Amino acid sequence: MKPFKLTFKPNNVTIQVDPSKIPYGETGLPGSILDIALANGVDLEHVCGGNIACSTCHVRVIEGFETCSAVSSEEQDQLDVASGKTEKSRLSCQCVPSGEKDIVVEIP
Ligand code: FES
């Protein structure tokens, strides 16, 4: 896996992700957007601690969505109650990019 960029909007903060450093051991699935964000100083909300029991970690993956891990039924249930949900919505604690493409996410 080669390095890729993970950009957060609207703040336009970009993290250069070095896959050899994953997992960071932060909250959420190893290598998830939340794991990468917290390890690199981007403060995403994560009230339930990455346990698919809230939707505060909701993001919209506006670029590179197709390179992310599949949505589980538990994640889908939480996304259904997330405000501002679109077809690009994911729980950042569950969304693991493969690294094939750079990722841009929007924090609602
Ligand atoms: S932190 Fe609660 S579902 Fe992701």
Structure description:
The chain has 108 residues and is of the alpha+beta class. It has a single domain (4-106), classed as Beta-grasp domain (Ubiquitin-like (UB roll), Roll). 13% of the residues lie in helices and 22% in strands. It has two helices and five strands; from the N terminus they run ββαβαββ. The protein has a five-stranded mixed β-sheet. It starts with a strand and ends with a strand. 33% of the residues are buried. The structure holds FE2/S2 (inorganic) cluster. FE2/S2 (inorganic) cluster binds at residues 46-48, 50, 52-54, 56-57, 78, 91, 93.
Descriptors:
alpha+beta, globular, binds FE2/S2 (inorganic) cluster, 108 residues, Ubiquitin-like (UB roll), five-stranded mixed β-sheet, 13% helix, 2 helices
